[in-house]
Write a structure and sequence with these properties.
mainly alpha, 17 helices, elongated, transmembrane
Length: 359
Amino acid sequence: MAAPLAPRRGAGAAGRRCLVLLSPLLLVLLRARPAGALVEGLYCGTRDCYEVLGVSRSAGKAEIARAYRQLARRYHPDRYRPEPGDEGPGRTPQSAEEAFLLVATAYETLKDEETRKDYDYMLDHPEEYYSHYYHYYSRRLAPKVDVRVVILVSVCAISVFQFFSWWNSYNKAISYLATVPKYRIQATEIAKQQGLLKKAKEKGRNRKSKEEIRDEEENIIKNIIKSKIDIKGGYQKPQICDLLLFQIILAPFHLCSYIVWYCRWIYNFNIKGKEYGEEERLYIIRKSMKMSKSQFDSLEDHQKETFLKRELWIKENYEVYKQEQEEELKKKLANDPRWKRYRRWMKNEGPGRLTFVDD
């Protein structure tokens, strides 16, 4: 009986060594791209930009510009005239136009230092295929204007619009208050006490017409209202620090201030268990009512005192107050004639109902 064939250890070891040696080679072959430095679609395509302009890689900007001007005059489609011994790329108007575009592309590539540096790097390192594509298109598609300049100009424009819009709203509020009898009478009394109205009616060489006197008195009354009344909310006097530009500049300061304030709040009231002060109580009430700071500041002082007396910073008390306000609103709506008409219309007609009227 024949003995079974024994495995050849030497052959197996040699095979494993071959696989170990071939693995890196196979990996390189799989990842390899075309080794040529000149790639179609990048810069001058398969043509060398230096050869297109007829200059060496050590040529300076002046030499490159001079070569470009000469070739541009030679291959310009409107001025091109083929010469008998012309062996260049442009022998017909169509080929001359292609040559002109190629010369322009070569000049655009070599005149910029950063683009020329990327192009030289591509010639020296043809194996970095994807890197060349990235650098080429990142520069080609990059915006011509600095994005930071665009953002800065936009923010400044928005801030200017904000300022004039707020100032217009403030002037409208002052003009309205000047028509309210309550404030107009008080402002007129103050103007008479200070003798401002007499100055407006002075006679002499600089005698004014009735319209000028009326306009001047109106401005005096408005100025007194501005100085005596503190308007809050959406019609308050515009402040420079409220503009978007200054809000962005002061954002780090506000953020740090908020972090410090929040840490103090946690330490004083959550850890040490201190009682809330008046400012803290109003802050909790404002947050419960979901009102912004400007909205809450526009409330009358007696309303804030009522909030404090009813201890609305306590959640249970606020829930009772909220329910009372909802009930009061329902009663007002029930007694409102307009609301009654609306409910009657919804009951009889309603949205989407078809009715036919017989004449």
